[in-house]
Design a protein that fits this description.
The protein has about 700 residues and is of the alpha+beta class. It has helices spanning about 1-20, 40-60, 75-80, 95-105, 120-125, 140-145, 150-160, 275-290, 325-330, 335-350, 395-405, 430-440, 445-455, 470-520, 535-575, 580, 585-620, 625-635, 640-650, 665-675, 680-690; strands at about 65-70, 85-90, 110-115, 130-135, 165-170, 195-200, 210-215, 220-225, 225-230, 230-235, 250-255, 255-265, 300-305, 310-315, 320-325, 355, 365, 375, 380. Strand 8 (about 220-225) and strand 9 (about 225-230) form a beta hairpin.
């Protein structure tokens, strides 16, 4: 009887499967259908099972899984066979019929299936109802129907209510009808979530373009060998960092660990190749340093590190303490002498091993309750003896640091650092100490020398007694320069803030525009005016509500557009202001310095040469007589061919692309290239001259 029942169930399953519009997935428990499946699911299942096992192990129990867009139920049933409690959702009744038939064939599996729309299911979910949600190649349909903003909100809610999500996302480049609706980068759909990591890419049966699969969580750091909850996260390294690293880095914190997660490309595509390489290099340096630190230097334990083509990560022990940057901002009293002494001890140890910290800043120093100071950001430690930015000289950078911890309440603001460069603004005996160091030849500068002088600073002569005229000039000029730079930075910051507000308002306008279009396109079913009075009343009421909503959105839209106009007017006022014009050359110098560091001297020189030559060529084209004289001169000295090749390289489109095609030649050109087209008398003269040559 049991065998007959199973046979009957299998027969029913076969019938249901054969009636499907598409066998999209592998049919669970039926290898005879494998050849007909549009996509082999086993490779993706291996990765999903790996993530399932990791989370299940950490939670200490089987997981409750929500399979959104379950199709023919392969992943639902596969996870249920591992012990999971699974709910599969699909909007197609035929798929659910197949799923239920397969569930009946596998009564040991705790799995249920129901017809539903993902949007409706997610909106009704409760917290901790499910541990894991999976959505494989389904959310692009919702993007096409409702837009990117709606799906971002949907996924953020789902991430809040579960421990983790696994999503396979379609991409805009796929040549299908819904492609135009997708974001430029699929990560736009999940970038609002705290943590996400690429775990694989998979081909489809629809094109030769692969789809990425991500593990996502708003609660946990989930890495190949590490799966732990975090208590907080941020996308800036310290308070006040602003747009540092162009938000390519995220930091996750718990009481036991810190996770650094660096992306090698960003959704906004703002990261340059050099900045991307900096992320790779810093992570590699930090991993190598923590694995084998110099003897005598106390460093946090390294828990795990790794990466893929898209991102890299590192998890280490959390050291108790507060960033010196935040301590100074809070005006908490600290023992500055102890802080400097502790840091010099560490810098000397590094120096003895041929290592230097190229980003020695107040936000890369940790202060504990006993005012003990420790260097952090070990990715900035390497064998190059220079600062990563202004002022480049690593010992001058240390002097700037000392100024920062003594002058934190002053409004010093430079282009790249926020403190004076000289030792002359410091209180005694610290000014005496650094002035004595300042007086040593630059070639003798070292952290060992700084430490030696620091230990005897109370016995050193007063800075004022050993100053020369140059020192006095620096001391006099520094406040003036710093004040000018303060004005520049404040103005620039204001412009950036206004432009950010404009971008936010523009995004809001786009969202409101989509909402207005949705309301305006909303259709209502026709109603019989005689027999369906109540439904007709309800529809009319709904229309009235929609009309009010459209008017409200239009009002908000107009307000936002007006606000944008006001902000642009504010930016224009800044650009036309006297202070902006006066500081033009300061800003230009800062830009050129940045470009030089980004592209190198060779590329910047090529750029300059190209600009000069372009201006020369433009000037000559505007003065034909001078141009002819220059050409004759070049021919005389024998470099005309070289100059012409240079001109062709810089102006590839300026020459005639059809030199030998009579269709595109002027009459004069035709006659020169084809003498037979010349008048007979002219042709005879041309032939005589040609023969005489």
């Amino acid at each position: 009887m049991k065998m007959r029942k199973n046979h009957s169930m299998t027969t029913n399953t076969h019938k249901l499967v054969s009636e499907l519009p598409e066998i999209y997935q592998t049919i669970f428990g039926h290898p005879e259908w494998d050849g007909d499946a549009a996509r082999d699911c086993n490779e993706r299942l291996a990765l999903i099972s790996e993530q399932y096992d990791s989370l299940s192990r950490e939670l200490g129990r089987p997981l409750r899984v929500l399979d959104l867009g379950c199709a023919q139920g392969f992943f639902s049933l596969s996870l249920a066979s591992k012990g999971a409690s699974v709910l599969g959702i699909d909007f197609l009744q035929q798929n659910i019929d197949v799923c239920q038939a397969l569930a009946e064939e596998n009564p040991h599996c705790d799995v249920k299936f129901q017809v539903g729309r993902i949007e409706d299911i997610v909106s009704t979910l409760e917290e901790n109802q499910f541990d894991l949600a999976i959505g494989l190649s389904v959310f692009h349909h919702i993007v096409h129907l409702h837009g990117v903003a709606e799906v971002r909100s949907l996924l953020e809610r789902l991430a809040n209510l579960t421990q983790a999500m696994i999503l396979e996302l379609a991409v805009k480049e796929e040549p299908l009808y819904w492609g135009k609706s997708q974001p430029e980068d699929p990560r736009e759909l999940i970038d609002q979530c705290a943590f996400y990591r690429l775990i694989g890419r998979f081909d489809t049966h629809l094109s030769n373009i692969s789809r990425p699969m991500y593990i996502i969580s708003n609660h946990r750091v989930i890495l190949p060998e590490f799966n732990q909850p975090f208590s907080s996260w941020r996308d800036s390294p310290y308070t006040g960092a602003g747009f540092a690293h162009k938000q390519s880095r995220r930091y996750y914190f718990s009481s036991e660990f810190i996770c650094k997660f660096y992306r090698f490309s960003t959704v906004s595509c703002l990261l340059t190749d050099k900045e991307s390489e900096r992320n790779r290099t810093e992570l590699a340096h930090e991993e190598a340093f923590l694995k084998s630190p110099p003897s005598g230097l106390k460093v946090p334990a390294l828990f795990t590190a790794g990466g893929n083509g898209e991102a890299g990560w590192l998890v280490m022990e959390k050291i108790p303490g507060e960033l010196l940057n935040d301590v100074l901002a809070s005006e908490r009293h600290i023992d500055r002498e102890k802080v400097i002494s502790d840091l010099l001890d560490q810098l000397v140890i590094l120096e003895e091993h041929g290592l230097y910290h190229d980003d020695f800043r107040t936000w890369n120093v940790l202060i504990d309750d006993n005012d003990s100071a420790r260097l952090i950001d070990f990715g900035s430690i390497g064998d190059v003896q220079q600062d990563c930015s202004w002022p480049v000289n690593i010992f001058q950078s240390f002097i700037v640091f000392v100024n920062e911890i003594f002058c934190e309440n002053k409004s010093w603001r430079g282009f790249w650092r926020s403190a004076p460069l000289s030792p002359f603004q410091l209180p005694e005996p610290y000014s005496n100490w650094l002035t004595a160091f300042w007086k040593h030849p630059v070639g003798e500068w070292s952290f060992a020398l700084l430490q030696q002088l620091f230990s005897t600073k109370d016995a050193l002569p007063a800075a004022s007694s050993i100053m020369d005229a140059s020192d006095l000039w620096v001391r006099a000029q520094e406040p003036v320069l710093l004040e000018s730079q303060t004005q520049i930075r404040n103005t620039d910051a204001r412009v950036v803030r206004l432009e950010s507000q404009i971008n936010e308002l523009t995004s809001l306008i786009n969202i409101m525009g989509e909402s207005i279009q949705t309301f305006e396109k909303r259709e209502y079913p026709p109603q019989d005016v005689t027999t369906n009075v109540q439904p007709r009343i309800e529809i009319e009421q709904s229309k009235a509500v929609d009309s009010e909503e459209i008017m409200r959105l239009h009002t908000q839209l107009n307000d936002a557009q007006q606000e944008i106009e006001n902000l642009r007017h504010e930016i224009a006022k800044i650009h036309y202001s006297r202070s902006w014009k006066m500081t033009k050359w300061y800003r230009y110098a800062g830009l050129q310095y940045y470009l030089l560091r980004q592209y190198g001297f060779k590329q910047r020189f090529k750029h300059l040469l190209k600009r000069v030559l372009s201006n020369v060529f433009y000037f000559l084209r505007a003065h034909p007589r001078l141009k002819q004289k220059v050409i004759n001169l070049l021919r005389t000295i024998g470099i005309y061919d070289f100059a012409y090749r240079m001109h062709r390289r810089m102006n590839p489109g300026s020459h005639n692309p059809y030199p030998n095609d009579p269709q595109y030649q002027s009459q004069t050109e035709k006659q020169i290239l084809h003498p037979e087209l010349l008048p007979p008398e002219v042709n005879s003269i041309f032939s005589e001259l040609k023969n005489k040559r």
